[in-house]
TrEMBL record:
This is 16S rRNA m(2)G 1207 methyltransferase. One of its GO terms (molecular function) is nucleic acid binding. PROSITE patterns: N6_MTASE. Signal peptide: none annotated. Residues 156-318 form the Methyltransferase small domain. Residues 20-120 form the Methyltransferase small N-terminal domain. The keyword Cytoplasm applies. It comes from Salipiger marinus. Keywords: Cytoplasm, Methyltransferase, rRNA processing, S-adenosyl-L-methionine, Transferase. The lineage of its organism: Bacteria, Pseudomonadati, Pseudomonadota, Alphaproteobacteria, Rhodobacterales. It comes from the Bacteria.
């Protein structure tokens, strides 16, 4: 659970406006928000698991800010470009109001504070629980931090903060080279991102339906632009709990393995379990993983046949068939 730095800041001198709506950008699903007036708050969270968790706790959720707001609270994400973009978004949504920033030191809040302080005076700051909260008056001084989707040289669109936003990562390239020409009629890409893997899958023979499952709304919006094919269906969902309309012939994936900055092999293992659950008895899984990740035992538990079919010093391509129910 995230710390209650915001409560501490309010006790230490942060004055939240007594009236008017409050925008909250990027709150984690386990964020401590007890200090906020829930009836006046609108939360924007593009990560589906966090969005769903906050909605279950009764918060008013929105896809995008519709201001104006009296104040805006920004939770600092790991990606610096995304953090800057959220500050610009907060300033635009709360013109004439207050912008509050809450972040962990491990997510770069200290360097972000220095960058903000170089442009505008701070109204206050507090440090607590390996993080910091600081606040300042909304201003146009961060207009150049506003960032949206970017089109790469190859024509593909990516979003700030999305995985491999500067182009197709080497693991995906290696997996595409190992895939057979025929994968079956119904295929899913779990954790599809902005569609780099799916774009290489859709031209293959026999594909009748390709499901792209992605938790990051911004990345999925880019995938919609990158793969305008009627056979593709886009799902803003948690890949570990998503259920297809019918069992699938194949799953391809380059699963994430980080929770924040910490490596978390359990996340990729949950993706493997999800793949076994959504595949037909004759279905097959193709995945790429960093070589050090311990996925083989989970694959052996969930599938009857597992083999490494390609790889290099950094990555391994694993092929698993006949999921065990």
């Amino acid at each position: 659970m995230t710390s209650d730095r915001l409560t501490f800041a309010l006790e230490a001198g942060l004055d939240l406006p007594q009236e008017g709506p409050v925008l909250v950008l990027g709150a984690p699903g386990d964020a401590v928000l007890d200090a906020l007036p829930q009836d006046r708050c609108t939360l924007v969270q593009p990560s589906f698991p966090d969005h769903a968790a906050l909605a279950r706790h009764g918060w008013d959720m929105a896809q995008a800010p519709e201001g104006p707001f009296a104040a805006a609270l920004v939770f600092v994400p790991r990606a610096r470009e995304l953090a800057e973009a959220r500050i610009a978004q907060a300033c635009a949504a709360a013109k004439g109001g207050l912008v509050i920033v809450d972040g962990q030191k491990t997510d770069g809040v200290e360097s972000l504070l220095r960058a903000v302080r170089d442009r505008v005076p701070l109204l206050g700051q507090v440090s607590k629980a390996h993080g910091r909260v600081f606040w300042f008056a909304a201003t146009d001084a961060f207009a150049d931090w506003a960032r949206g989707p970017v089109q790469l040289a190859n024509g593909m669109w990516t979003a700030p903060g999305s995985f491999s936003a500067d182009g197709e990562d080497p693991g995906t390239t290696l997996l595409l080279a190992a895939l057979p020409a025929k994968l079956g009629a119904t295929v899913a890409d779990l954790g599809a991102g902005w569609g780099a893997l799916a774009a290489g899958v859709i031209p293959r023979e026999t594909i009748g339906a390709l499901h792209l499952v992605e938790a990051d709304q911004a990345a999925l919006d880019c995938a919609r632009r990158n793969i305008p094919d009627p056979r593709v269906q886009f799902h803003w969902a948690d890949a570990t709990t998503w259920t297809p309309p019918a069992l699938l012939d194949a799953v391809v994936m380059n699963p994430p393995f980080h929770t924040g900055r910490a490596a978390d092999p359990g996340l990729g293992q949950a993706f493997i379990a999800a793949a076994a659950r959504v595949l037909k008895p004759s279905g097959q899984l193709w995945l790429v993983a960093n070589r050090h990740l311990p996925y083989e035992s989970t694959l052996a538990e969930r599938f009857r046949t597992v083999e490494e079919v390609a790889g290099d010093t950094r990555f391994k391509i694993l092929h698993a068939t006949r999921p065990a129910r």
